[in-house]
Amino acid sequence: MSTQEGAQPAAKWSRPQGGAGRMIGTRRQREGRAGSRAWLIASTLLDLEFATAFGLFAAMLFISQLGSLGALLIIGLTGGYALLHMARLYDILLPRAFILLIPAVIVMSTLWSETRSETLKYALEFTITAGAGLMLSASRRPMSVLFGMFLAFGFYIAVSLAFGQSVFVGTTGTTAFSGLNRGKNMLADIASTGLLISAATFLVAIAERRLLLILSALLFASLELYVVIAARSAGAMLGFALAMALFVLLLSLRSIGPVLRATATFFLGLVLVVAALNYRGLSSAMIETGTRFFDKDLTLTGRTYLWQRAYDLINETPWLGRGFRSFWLQGNPDAEGLWQYAGIMSRDGFNFHNTAIEVLVHLGWFGLIVYAAVVTLALGFLVARFLMRPNLFVCFWLSVLIYELVRMPIESIGFTEFYFSTVLLFMAMGSAFGVPAAKRNAAMRGARPAPRPAPDRASAPA
């Protein structure tokens, strides 16, 4: 977001002659800064990037209440955004083309799916969802996108607290807050994600000196923290704690030299790799701690039985799976049995609570290898960009990506159409690459190419 309009160049009166001139210059500077801040707020609220981000995430968060209207809003906003950015769409997607391998394999699974028409429908919806994330990752106004997400998540949490409900947790007789739906884990995921977004918004607001935005970020963050605790989700709390700690650590590494930053990042990555290799032992300890803290049953609210049934399904079609979304369909006896076991009366909106298992059931080992390779490669590119240009937004998206990765062993992440975490995962992966410069067709217009617009002040390295 350019801040040039409404601001007076300081060089004009940086060295005024005499006290009167100095006072006039100071007053003019104050008026220029006040006008600039007012223009920033107005332009952000009326900005296309803000409107698209807010509308898209609000529609996904309220998708259960909006139904088909929510799906139409998501399709319309994504399609409209693509049309308005058609001139730079090629430049946006070219460096991110390898990320499109995930939706490509999902669409390809139509060829071997047990229910081809349903698979094609959901695969196209997933492609739209992934495309929305990739396009927003290349926005020239990252602050506007962040602000739109911030308001969407904050508004959803506020409405959930006003009209929400509680559900029983497992067989222990305890209850947890689930908000507008019956999924407490989904609500905890929304609140944890919103808390990360509020933290980033708070830092941007401080940099921009926006008091109202600072107070709003603090208010929404307090509500989101309360919901995370009330939802009693060990996975969401663990993921948020790790992601927030990483966010703070990455921000602190921005000010040191590139060599020290690279060294610290290397050792941090080494620690994460060691933790991943010893995941079974660490997860067992975390599961035991979580069950004691939240008074849950040792089966992680029935997840272990889901995983046992999934292994049987994987062994039936190990290499290509059953086709995207061909299992969780009404009328499928296996799915009906799991819905009945979990008490899902709506017979919809359920998964195996493990990303790798979910991918194996639907896409087999072929799909899992592609999925894992794309996410790993995108993570590498994002870390490389942090080493070269460690601005606030790169730190934020790297933390979001780690938050999603940490929760993949106990939740299905980035594998659901029209879902906010899928968009966030693709935004995080796409943010590893730069923003294409504005172009004009010089041959058609007989003019020189337009200069590259000034970036957001908030997105510049601090």
Give the proportion of residues in helices.
Answer: 55-70%
Quote the distance from N terminus to C terminus: 16 Å
Could you give the count of β-strands? 2
Largest sheet: 2 strands, antiparallel
- The tally of helices reads 19
Percent strand equals under 5%
Notes on the structure:
Residues 1-25, 440-450 and 456-462 have low confidence and may be disordered. It is globular and about 55 Å long. Helix 4 (68-84) packs across helix 7, helix 6 runs antiparallel to helix 16 and helix 8 (142-163) crosses helix 10. A hairpin with a 4-residue loop joins strand 1 (165-169) and strand 2. By secondary structure, the chain is mostly helical. It is built from 19 helices and 2 strands. A two-stranded antiparallel ribbon has the order 1-2. The chain has helices spanning 18-45, 48-61, 63-66, 68-84, 86-93, 101-108, 116-137, 142-163, 184-208, 211-230, 234-253, 258-277, 279-294, 303-316, 333-342, 355-388, 392-407, 420-430, 442-445, and strands at 165-169, 174-179.
